[in-house]
Design brief:
Chain B: It comes from Candidatus Egerieicola faecale. Chain B: Pfam families: Glyoxalase_6. Chain B: This is Glyoxalase-like domain-containing protein. Chain B: InterPro entries: Glyas_Bleomycin-R_OHBP_Dase (IPR029068), Glyoxalase_6 (IPR041581). The complex is a heterodimer. By secondary structure, chain A is mostly beta strands. Chain A is built from 2 helices and 11 strands, in the order ββββαββββαβββ. Chain A folds into 2 domains: 72 residues, no CATH class; 137 residues, 2,3-Dihydroxybiphenyl 1,2-Dioxygenase, domain 1, CATH 3.10.180.10. Chain A has an 8-stranded mixed β-sheet with strand order 5-6-7-4-8-11-10-9. Chain A has a 3-stranded antiparallel β-sheet with strand order 2-1-3, with no helix packed on it. In chain A, a hairpin with a 2-residue loop joins β9 and β10. The longest helix of chain A is centred in the middle third of the chain and has 12 residues. The C terminus of chain A is likely disordered. Chain B is of the alpha+beta class. Helix content of chain B is 15%, strand content 24%. Chain B has an 8-stranded mixed β-sheet. Chain B is globular and about 45 Å long. The two termini of chain B are 34 Å apart. The N terminus of chain B is likely disordered. Classes of the chains: A mainly beta, B alpha+beta. At the A-B interface, β4, α1, β5, β7 and β8 of A face β1, α1, β2, α2 and β5 of B.
Chain lengths: 229, 174
């Protein structure tokens, strides 16, 4: 017989036949004893049991990876956010056609002084504002770069925004990372290329001075029903 | 690096008016060799928050020394989906062999078989990595492909349980 199970620990609802009911919650790993059960009524949306999700715990041990609500990120900083993915190409038209035709991306050359035949290209992978920032949460925009453009040879694959590169760089080696390319300026913005403790290369990009923190992408919380549209 | 967002391109991005997240880059995949070292680097220096994926999703028993993780790189809600636009969360896993290059997971059409996207990937110079999975009604399905330059892409077809009330499921309604 099919039932709706709602996890008391995380609030996640799911519907399966009792013979297939998992021993642990598919969302948070809580044991089966934590499930609240009701008969299947044709729709999860019509279930009668609702469990409030957990709230961020300000005293949570930051190294504890058991299930919890993600931490409350502080206001007026975008430090640590992965802001762009980066991939490299050999043939610009072939790559542009691939992502445009297969995945419906919108791709434009980055507006700057660059090689027009092998440009760095900015990619919208979903809805965005006029300033080419994503309009909705939980997906990213990115960059397609010509293979020869990376002078570190490390092939960095993402861009992390940081508050202050000068303050960050002296700490990198102490945590097992490497500075592959020190702070540099491009088009009035500051960057560096780093490697994490495992060898993953990435860019850091310093928050520009003209950021007001009123931008949607600068917020640290959106109420559930306060959608940016 | 020409990663400027101060000078925006000369037009707004195109509209995405359909109930469809096809092509959105939803998560990055990053690998590690030493979990504690990896965690300390990203948690202490960049403020990331990490949650151990359930065994059904991450393939590791609870409390493993080499856990599979969901990583909030910025504000996120209790499902570990981002709650603010403009940043991506990551998944992290132990690299059994060599460290694996960071790659990305995209959503694909919910209302057609993954094989349709796989065929198009091949048509435009990409390749399917491994087998095309058997699909079950109501379950998510994933597939790995590569682009013409060998960049690996995870493709994920969301199950039909999406209600379109989720914050991440927004689309251009105007």
């Amino acid at each position: 017989m099919k039932y709706i199970y709602t996890c008391f620990k995380c609030g996640f609802p799911f519907a399966v036949d009792e013979s297939e009911c998992p021993e642990r919650c598919p969302s948070c790993s809580a044991p089966k004893s934590q499930y609240l059960v009701e008969p299947w009524n044709g729709s999860i949306e019509k279930r009668r049991i609702h469990v409030d999700p957990p709230e961020p715990d300000p005293n949570w041990d930051k190294y504890d990876v058991s299930y919890h609500h993600p931490k409350h990120f502080p206001a007026k900083t975008r430090h640590g956010r992965v802001r762009r993915f980066v991939m490299e190409y050999s043939d610009p038209q072939k790559t542009k056609d691939f992502y445009t035709e297969v995945f419906d991306w919108d791709i434009v050359p980055v507006e700057c002084d660059q090689d027009k035949d092998r440009p760095e290209m900015f990619c919208a992978t979903g809805p965005g504002f006029a300033n080419w920032e994503p309009k909705f949460p939980s997906f990213g925009y990115g960059l397609l770069k010509p293979q020869e453009s990376d002078d570190t040879g490390a092939y960095p694959r993402f861009v992390v925004e940081v508050d202050n590169i000068d303050e960050l760089l002296p700490k990198i080696e102490a945590y097992g990372g490497k500075v592959l390319k020190g702070k540099y300026e491009f088009d009035g913005k500051y960057y560096a290329v780093l490697e994490d403790s495992e060898g993953n290369p990435f860019y850091v990009w310093q928050t520009p001075e003209d950021v007001t923190f009123d931008e949607p992408e600068s917020q640290n919380y959106y109420h559930w029903d306060r959608k940016p549209q | 690096m020409a990663e400027s967002v101060s000078k925006y391109p000369y037009r707004a991005p195109k509209k995405y008016p359909n109930k469809d997240l096809h092509g959105r880059v939803r998560f990055g995949y990053i690998s590690y060799k030493d979990f504690k070292r990896f965690q300390k680097f990203w948690v202490d220096l960049f403020g990331w928050d990490m949650f151990e994926l359930p065994e059904a999703a991450g393939g590791k028993e609870p409390g493993s020394d080499t856990p599979s993780l969901l990583v909030a790189t910025g504000p996120s809600y209790e499902t570990w989906e981002g709650v603010v636009p403009g940043h991506m969360n990551f998944m992290a896993h132990y690299a059994e062999g060599e460290l694996e290059p960071v790659n990305y997971m995209m959503e694909i059409h919910m209302d057609e078989p993954v094989k349709c996207t796989a065929d198009k990937v091949v048509q435009y110079g990409g390749a399917v990595v491994g087998e095309i999975p058997e699909e079950k009604e109501g379950w998510s399905t994933s597939l790995t492909v590569s682009d013409p330059d060998g960049n690996v892409l995870g493709l994920w077809r969301c199950p039909s349980s999406r209600t379109w009330d989720e914050a991440e499921a927004g689309y251009d309604k105007d």
